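Priority: low. Protein: Glutamate--tRNA ligase. Input follows.
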Amino acid sequence: MTRTRFAPSPTGYLHIGGARTALYCWLEARRAGGQFILRIEDTDRERSTQAAIDAILEAMDWLGLSYDEGPIYQTQRLERYREVAEQMVAAGTAYYAYETRDELAAARDAALAAKEKPRYNGAYRDRNEPYRDDPNRVIRFKNPLGGTVVFEDKVKGRIEIANSELDDLVIFRADGYPTYNFAVVVDDLDMRITDVVRGDDHVNNTPRQINIYEALGAPVPHFAHLPMILDSEGAKLSKRTGAADVMQYRDEGYLPHALLNYLVRLGWSHGDQEIFSIEEMTRLFQLVDVNSSASRLDAAKLGWMNQQYLKSDDPAEVGKHLEWHLRQQGLDLAAGPAPADVVIALRDRVQTLKDMAERAAVWYRPLQTYDEAAVAKHLNAAAQAPLSEARARLTALAVWSADSVSAALHEAAEALGLGMGKVAQPLRVAITGTQVSPDISHTVYLAGQAQALQRIDAALTKIPA
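Result:
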């Protein structure tokens, strides 16, 4: 069974690159009918925080990347790491070393002076030192001295690194904590991970980990190292250029499945298709189809993609996401229209839910300000008859709906022998205080019957006698 894992370190929020890695892991497992595991690699005691863990879990939940097992915390597995490390010492594939920091620094300086690559000199490799209580005690892995490590990366292809480039890395420290390269091997082995999917900044770690797998006599998983995501200028992402908390994308008004669709296309394609449902992604995605070159963030494309979902998704479902943004605007949902109706009115005009909520505020708050230029242009003597006729017909409506409002306004225009624009523009200013709004039928309907009539009355008082 295919088993993948997403293993973030809780030293900060879940950023866009991590979200793509999580998505690719999730899709690979789901396509194969396998399992997806969430592991929290929280052994960095100085930088790991509960706030970061909470942020990661919140982002995974918002994105809908459900996991079959987890979250599993490395700090709850410390005894397991110690057990395996000591088993390796007993088997002769690891050993205790006791150098002080000064001794290690001196060896490093000597290597640099000799113009050699700084690396552990193997002083304790063959000494078979027993365990003793010493603050400098570590367990080091006995890395093979000759040969090469070769693996077929599902994204990058064949990778080969000579063991002479590696040294005897520390796998367990005196403080009772494992090092990264050791802990992930023990975790992936215990969790029966078949496919390790992660960023290509881990490529250099992989040969070390493969050697540890082989020393344990364990099967080596498949590896897939994903290329970087760059900003629009081709530079490394920064907070300013897109390396943002995934939840910031929610705050800016993107739908989670629109963001997933955008992320899946950052390095993977299926012909010329741009829009993929979750079902299509799950069925079509394969790691071997991921491009090995870096991808660039494109804010315009993300905005376009988000709008496609605003237009095509069930308004009631989009409305559930809009509710959060309306509340962020400090709006009382009970004081205005159903969010689904707002979606229908505005989805062709905006790219984000945040923009939609900001524009919708006019239907949830009393109208207190008017655009003076709009008032001067449209609330003049010529507006008296259209507003009065529209008011009378809207008052008579027994059923208040977008269709009934539309019919009433068209009847008003016909009764006065006017084009619809002559009725719509003064009404638009009356309802919104501006010259800009969606279709006039939706604009009036969303205000609600009582509020629409009240606003028309207020507009009539602004017409010069």
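The chain has 19 helices and twelve strands. The radius of gyration is 31 Å.
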